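Researcher: Good morning. I'm working through a list of sequences from a screen, and I'd like to move beyond sequence-only analysis. For each chain I'm collecting a predicted structure so we can compare shapes side by side. This is the next one on the list. No need for commentary yet; just the structure.
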Amino acid sequence: QVHVAESGGDLVESGGSLTLSCETSGWTRTDFCMAWFRQVSDKGREAVASIDSDGQINYDDSLKGRFTVSRGTAKNSLILAMSDLTPADSGMYYCAATWACGRAWAASNVYGYWGQGTRVTVSS
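Model: Good morning. Structure tokens for this chain:
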């Protein structure tokens, strides 16, 4: 059974930075795709960034430059470093995992494993 758990959500001021972490367990292999999604305001769940099983990194174009995704010290973990945050970035941030995501990395239905989410609130 694969488990996914996010942490690091917090209240920050506009212009501030925050780092989210995701830990997975239960995998029988060390190379797999992990991604961050978020649900902000009244929008649906949108892809933020991913690292595929082959190391390929993808970003939503609108967030690239402010958000940086990386593997943690353990290969089963994922980090999202966020900077220059605005109130529009407020919402729930979810970590997701699957064996390989390829070009479909931004499609939520590609991922079979999800965490419960961590809340990010950016004050104006």
